Amino acid sequence: MMTAAGMGAMAGMRALSAPTFLSQHLAEEGASAKASPVEQFLASSTTARVLPVLALGELVLDKLPGMPSRLVPPVLLMRLASGALVGAAVARQKERSVLGFAVVGAVAALASSCALYAVREFATRKLRIPNIIAGFIEDALVASAGHRLTSAMG
């Protein structure tokens, strides 16, 4: 369950990063014979090549002025969906309740979206850390979490 929560939290920080790390892991490990269509999609070599490019685009866009807040409903909904997706995929890998893990992933995405929004606002407004630096710090957290979580998946 901790892996689903961690992946969900990553989705709350960067919506495409969690599916990207999971896709890379599944592509390397190969999809099981009982893999769901979502797992097969994530495990495909095409998805494993395309998602990192899209995730990189998200990292760049995050630093641009005028980008909408992560708490704007359409953006937040995308993060929640991403958290639910990775939570469900982790559940299938662990042979656990897909619905339960999807909810854990979505709730973790919501919590991290709200928490990181507050932290980033504090860092940029009160501590006067430039937004681009705060964004790079968040990117580093996502990358570290992604590597650790996928390594723990075995």
Fold and architecture overview:
- This is DUF4126 domain-containing protein.
- Keywords: Membrane, Transmembrane, Transmembrane helix.
- It comes from Cystobacter fuscus (strain ATCC 25194 / DSM 2262 / NBRC 100088 / M29).
- This protein has 154 residues and is mainly alpha-helical.
- It has one domain.
- Helices cover 80% and strands 0% of the residues.
- It has seven helices and no strands.
- 39% of the residues are buried.
- The mean pLDDT is 91.
The pLDDT mean sits at 91
What is the number of independent domains?
1
Low-confidence stretches: none
Q: Alpha-carbon distance between the termini?
A: 15 Å
* β-strand amount: under 5%
Number of discrete helical segments: 7
Helix content: over 70%
Write down how many β-strands occur, each being a DSSP E stretch of 2 or more residues. Answer: 0
Query: Element order, helices and strands?
Result: HHHHHHH
Radius of gyration from the CA trace? 15 Å
Give short descriptive properties of this protein.
mainly alpha; membrane; DUF4126 domain-containing protein; 154 residues; single chain; DUF4126; transmembrane helix; globular
Question: Which helices and strands, and how do they pair?
Answer:
Elements: H1 2-13, H2 17-29, H3 37-43, H4 45-62, H5 73-94, H6 98-126, H7 131-152
Helix pairs in contact: 1-2, 1-5, 1-6, 1-7, 2-3, 2-4, 2-7, 5-6, 6-7
Describe the structure concisely for a colleague.
This is DUF4126 domain-containing protein. InterPro entries: DUF4126 (IPR025196). The chain has 154 residues and is mainly α.
